[in-house]
Amino acid sequence: xxxIVDQSSKLLVLRELPFTKTDIDKPDVTSWSPLxxxxxxxxxxxxxxxxxxxxxxxxxxxxxxxxxSAKTIFSGLGYYL
Length: 81
Hints:
Elements: E1 2-5, E2 11-15, E3 31-38, E4 47-54, E5 57-66, E6 69-78
Antiparallel strand pairs: 1-2, 3-4, 4-5, 5-6
């Protein structure tokens, strides 16, 4: 689970992955990890940058958090060996 905590100690869940049994040779789940915090939109607010990994698929997502809600502003799919 990836959460952020605002200045008033409120939690906002960005990504949640329930426990599932998966095939070790070809997993069918996506794992997310925080990559960076940056002002991606240039609006003065810090955005959350996440890295997503699944079987042969890899993502970068930028999530903008404003007024207690989260919105994905960029999602890019990539591939590497």
